[in-house]
Amino acid sequence: MESKSSQSQNLQSAHQHWRKGNAFLNEGKIEEGIAECRAALRLDPNSVAAHHDLGFALSSKGQKKAALVELRETVRLAPDLAHGHCTLGSVLSTLGHRDEAEAELRRSLALDPSDAEAHYLLGNVLSDKKEIDAALTEYWEVLNLDPHHARAYVAIGSSLVRQGYEDAAIEKYHQALRLDPNVLYARRCVARLYFWRGQIGLALRMWLKHG
Question: What is the pLDDT of residue 3?
Fold first, then answer.
């Protein structure tokens, strides 16, 4: 049996590995971040932060099922951690598990209603489930919390297209582009709408900017 001193040293070393891993991930060094998070978990299998960051990193590498293992452990160890539920919901959504993703994102928002990204992700899940009005409610809340969230404007535009409100959708796409000219999906959507409406010159202008 380890002494209390040895256990304390392990926990301190685990935290140091996690901090290094977190720094690597913030720098985009995914492999190094994964290695440090795994080292942290060998010393402290109950490190919530290491499980979460390892899950996030594995997801970014496309290893979604492995990421789920880490993120499920994250919320098991810390059921009141809002961003743990949010990250888990995001990964579940990419795997097509919409009902479970919705449940996790709603748990996240119950814990932290001010998380604009969680509202955005929930809107995407609801949109995928063809619950457009409910999705729009979430997207509008995103903008209430973060008026500069360009992707929310794009999502609102796409939702409005599905409801037949093309003029309003075009305006939302343009609002997204005013916030971030590099949102290429918004530019493509506007060009496509102009083309469908026979406004070929405007469509070409948008495509040329895209190119």
Answer: 57
Q: At 16, list the tokens.
A: 């140091």
Q: Per-domain residue ranges for the chain?
A: 11-65, 79-142, 148-211
Q: How many Å apart are CA 140 and CA 152, to the nearest integer?
A: 8
The parts of the chain modelled with pLDDT lower than 70 are 1-6, 210-211
End-to-end CA distance of the chain: 65
Considering only the C-alpha atoms of the chain, give the largest distance between any 2 of them, rounded to a whole number of Å. 77
Residue found under tokens 């960051």: 53
Quote the CATH superfamily of domain 148-211: Tetratricopeptide repeat domain (1.25.40.10)
The pLDDT assigned to 205 comes to 86
The answer regarding whether domain 11-65 maps to CATH 3.20.20.100 reads: no
One-letter amino acid of 54: L
> Model pTM greater than 0.85?
yes
Amino acid at 183: V
Could you say which architecture CATH assigns to the domain 79-142? Answer: Alpha Horseshoe (1.25)
55 neighbors 85 (Cβ within 8 angstroms): no
